[in-house]
Amino acid sequence: MSRIVYVNGDYVPEAEAKISVFDRGFLMADGVYEVTSVIDGKLVDYAGHVARLHRSLSELKMKPACSDDELLEIHRQMVERNALGNGMIYLQVTRGAADRDFAWPKDAEPGIVLFTQAKDLVNAPAAKTGLKVVTVEDQRWARRDIKTVQLLFPSFAKMEAKAQGKDDAWLVTDGLVNEGTSNNAWIVKGGTIVTRHLGNEILHGITRAAVIRFAKEAQMKVEERAFSIEEAKAADEAFCTAASAFVTPVVEIDGAAIGGGVPGPIATRLREIYIEESRKMAI
Questions:
Q1: N or C: which end of the chain has fewer CB within 10 A?
Q2: What is residue 51's three-state secondary structure?
Q3: Residue range 97-111, pLDDT digits in tens
């Protein structure tokens, strides 16, 4: 069955979905996005994603494409119309369509697109096997805290990892790990969980924030600070977090096995807690 997608006010079969060739998201990567997970037909961490969407729009001086109430209803319709039990909803908002110019158009209406992707996020194989990552020098623009659609370099980094027979890349500046291509990076040493502090260098992950909260509620020690590649290689455990990955163990970094090359107990427990709590709070 063909997916139903939402494009600028209309629900249409994916084969009929069209945007203007003058949309600035297409021409200039002038747009932002969010990905919300769906478990058992319900939206996970939805309020956090909407809050971050507003922040991204504000930082780029873009206006919302619709009200928050309308956006929630669109998400619910996407779940219903696509019979989505488990998976993700991708949302993209652009500055709109206007004749190509580096200067922003003054009167363009925002563009909005949503589509679904069915995926068994809870039983993902990587949760049991763990991921193998390589490190790549970070060459993205300086405002990584804004969730823009300009994802060319993360795509290059991901493909570099694939070319080496690995799963993903961690992006590094001056020997310090920023984050993964589409996730936040974590290590565990001596029972302490470490992830880079917030700033313009990394995306302010919604799953990251939830995991920090759940870890502290479980009496786990969390430090938000930068860590080096060498510190990561010497860690007891490593893992990454993202809306589409929840908590996923990392078992190898640049060929060095982490924790014996198998998922560690803290990452495994945090994943269990995250899924359990997400099911309780999903809307």
A1: N
A2: helix
A3: 999 999 999 889 999
